[in-house]
């Protein structure tokens, strides 16, 4: 689905984008919708795909948001409980 997004993420060479952070970013990029540039994902799904802990994903996402690589907005279910995050990728200042 997000092969073009993944290619762009692999090409990134910025300081601070350590392996674990880049792996989380690649996973998010892989799942992005080509038309909307967004995807709803749970931290647990990312962790399971990468074989890492949910807390590791949480830390990486916090860093990626602070560094401006992604935007993450938390969804709510109809009953008001928290659901998955909606991720939007931003590379080189461009939202994709």
Whole-number total of structural domains? 1
What can be said about the biggest beta sheet? 4 strands, antiparallel
Structural class: alpha+beta
Helix content: 40-55%
Low-confidence segments, ≥5 residues, pLDDT <50?
Answer: none
CATH topology name = Arc Repressor Mutant, subunit A
Series of secondary-structure elements, N-terminal to C-terminal: HHEHHEEE
* Name of the CATH superfamily: Winged helix-like DNA-binding domain superfamily/Winged helix DNA-binding domain
- CATH architecture, by name, is Orthogonal Bundle
**Form type:** globular
What's the average pLDDT? Answer: 84
Report the strand count. 4
The number of helical runs is 4
Distance between the termini: 14 Å
Strand content: 15-25%
Q: Report Rg.
A: 13 Å
Describe the structure.
The protein is α+β, with helices and mostly antiparallel strands. The protein has a single domain (3-95), classed as Orthogonal Bundle (Arc Repressor Mutant, subunit A). 44% of the residues lie in helices and 24% in strands. The protein is built from four helices and four strands; from the N terminus they run H-H-E-H-H-E-E-E. Strands 1, 2, 3 and 4 form a four-stranded antiparallel β-sheet that branches. Helix 1 (3-10) runs antiparallel to helix 2 (19-31) and helix 2 (19-31) packs across helix 4. The chain is globular and about 40 Å long.
């Amino acid at each position: 689905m997000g092969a073009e997004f993944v290619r762009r993420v692999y090409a990134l060479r910025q300081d601070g984008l350590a392996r674990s952070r880049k792996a989380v970013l690649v996973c998010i990029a892989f799942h992005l919708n080509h038309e909307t540039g967004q995807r709803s994902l749970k931290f647990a799904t990312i962790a399971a795909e990468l074989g890492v802990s949910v807390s590791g994903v949480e830390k990486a996402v916090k860093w990626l948001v602070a560094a401006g690589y992604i935007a993450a907005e938390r969804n709510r279910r109809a009953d008001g409980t928290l659901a998955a995050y909606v991720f939007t990728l931003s590379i080189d200042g461009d939202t994709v």
